[in-house]
Input
Amino acid sequence: MPDSDPVLAALPRDAQDRLICAPEAIFDRAAFAGDLEAAAAEAEDGAALRMAAVRLLREARSRGRDAIADAFRAHPFEARATIRAYAWLTDRLVEAAWTVATQRLHPNPNPTEGERLALLAVGGYGRGEMAPESDVDLLFLSPWKITPWAESVTESILYILWDIKLKIGHASRTVKDCLRLGAEDVTIRTALLEHRHLCGTAALTEELEHRLRQDLFDGTEREFIEAKLAERDARHTRQGARYMVEPNVKEGKGGLRDLQSLYWIAKYVHHVDVAAALVDLGVFRPEEYDRFRRAENFLWAVRCHLHLLSGRAVEQLTFDMQVDVAEAMGYRDARGRRAVEHFMQEYFLHATAVGDLTRIFLTALEADHRKGAPLLTRLFTRTPRVRKGYTVATGRLAIADDAAFLADKLNLLRLFEEALRTGLLIHPDAMRLVRANLHLIDDEVRTSREGQRIFLDLLLRHGNPERALRRMNELGVLSAFLPEFAPVVAMMQFNMYHHYTVDEHTIQCISQLARIERGELSESLPVASGILQEGVNRRVLYVALLLHDIGKGREEDHSILGARIARTVAPRLGLRKWEAETVEWLVRYHLLMSDLAQKRDIADPRTVRDFAKLVRTKDRLDLLTVLTVCDIRGVGPGTWNNWKAALIRALYRQTRRALEGGMEALNRENREAEAKRALRARLADWDQSDLRRELGRHYPAYWQGLHVTAHEIFARLLRDIGADDIRIDLHPDEDRDATRICFALADHPGIFSRLAGALALAGANVVDARTYTSKDGYATAVFWVQDADGRPYEMERLPRLERTIGKTLRGEVIPREAIRPRDKLRKRERAFRVPTSVTFDNDGSDIYTIIEVDTRDRPGLLYDLTRTLAEANVYIASAVIATYGEQAVDSFYVKDMFGLKLHAPARQRILEARLRKAIEDGAARAEG
Output
């Protein structure tokens, strides 16, 4: 871009970057002027000229945008040059519209004082930064009340710009209006802060600049700062934490708006036009400003790609857009991870950098007394006493002498211990010192007994370890002390199940454990709370939680790799040999209890027996149970529910009973006798003949697989049932966050599939299901279902649900055809790869083959799978349904038509092929 360009020269110094491509490729001024001159010569009147100008500007805008987009796609990280190019193109379009309006449509060679008019860019456009679909914010500035000529010019300019499809935000004001409205509304004041002269009377713009600084900005710095910080806090509350896996690039925590807020405050307080000036003022160090520029450039690049790919002003990085942006920016699959995961890890690292820079900048403001706590707060807040070497500055823990602090390398850890001990936040200057000296955390620090003590005390002693761990992680201390942790920092798990990055998930898990220990979750987590009250080895539990996902992101199974890493790390943290072995075991099997509870039928004695043999001791069972609860709860809001709680609780209690009372406690005959005794007590009002008939009509599996509540319901449904009757009982089971639906009807082949189809058609999501055939030919099936929000159906919705199910079972509706239009994936779900796996397990149950199907979840999946099994003459005794975001794991306990397990490899291969085809056909429908 030539230095002589007057518009470029008017931009702030940071904006004088080169454009992404040659200016004439974006907008050829000479060619446009010639074309406009020719159009004016041919135009019969103003209307014709205006139409010709609009046509020329539309073509110019389209060519310019294409040129910028093509250049940006070729250089996908050249964000600054791109956003300047879009602003430069917009300047040319606005300038051309001004020329047409003032020189062709409404010429006024000798305007009066009152007819002076200036056109200013404000907001982000005023700053000279525009994404492809950004709004164009304009201010028409008059000295006094707007005149008819100025009104005509304004109207013509706006209609031209609207007709060429620019998204215009505009206001017509006097200097006095700007001062008054800016004083009333901080949003308007912020937009005025970034004004830039485009066209018209420059003296008016200069007057506005002078009056804003003199009459509005000066003396109101603290008010502006507090308003912008309150605005930021409210925005973060709306958008969520920066670790959420679908972040808002513009408004989210660690996003562009946070960087822009720093710029606004800097300009307002320090009168600087560029962020680079903050280095000269001592606010940022050169390396910190470099982080600022790199974060800003990266975030702008992401935002520009978002706009180009979607064709509109999309600001949220949804899962589907993450894949497309990663591809556009040139990321590739590598080291066992998808391109999108590498891209998002870099995104979160930059978001963390933005958080650091925000803290540094606000500290500088506090040092200038621009911001502080209210007087009453300062008067009545007691400052904790700190240990030697520390001091308290602006209510935060600060370092008294940097050189003395750095003389002992272990002080880099002690700082966090002192912060937890005193309850003080760490002063950002202290954090800067730590970040700048991470190289001091070497092997000597990592293996020293004092280093081990400090780190374990951070986990175990102060009651809120997550606070120290999160700050240590953000500053790089955690990775310096545990280098094995570095690969999972800011690592995204690209799925709909995990809400956080791996490092933040780990910290959330530890936070959950600390909350249980503090007694905050005793009502909702009685088993885990009871285990901790009885006493466990806390060192083992906390270290296992810290390391449980440390092996993620590699091609090897993360549990196996994590266990190997734990074998090295646990002793280095000071754990004794047997403690380190227990940590290694917990990391290796940290998914075991969750998988068994959610993917297997825990009513089957074999499930509990095999689990108990692997766990071996009650101590390990206790530790694994608490770790499992914390792991699930740490996935994200709403992941833990009463259904999962009931499954984990049941598995724990049955396994504990087996470990303490012997495996005979799981004996099938014992459980059948206990179940019949319980039902006799429930049916005490029945006559003996009816009771004997009910107790004798079911096979052993029925008594072992259901609770007495279900046994009672089925007893009443089956009483006097006829061959053509279909009896249904629906009841919300709030303790399990599901609705229990019991069916009693005449048995026939494929009954499970028909029931699954009826429920799918009703929009119910099945989470567990059992079906049994009585000796007299009736099917007793129980399904636990949830609505689309993962909740039990409300009572008023049950009659409609029952009617839909009844119509399907009576053959009035054919599920296969009725489900087809609903069997669609949402756009954001199509970005995920979920490979299909079908396994056959003949060892996990004494009497059934377990078929586990792991594939992408979608509406109608369970119906497709069960229909395929029914058509292959496979009898389904029970199904356990687990979903993990976009992934479904459906486990079926089955027999063949002769009541035998499916042992033959050839039969298994044929059945697997049919199941895969059903999945593929369904996926094709879902993809549309």
About this structure: The first helix runs from residue 6 to 10.
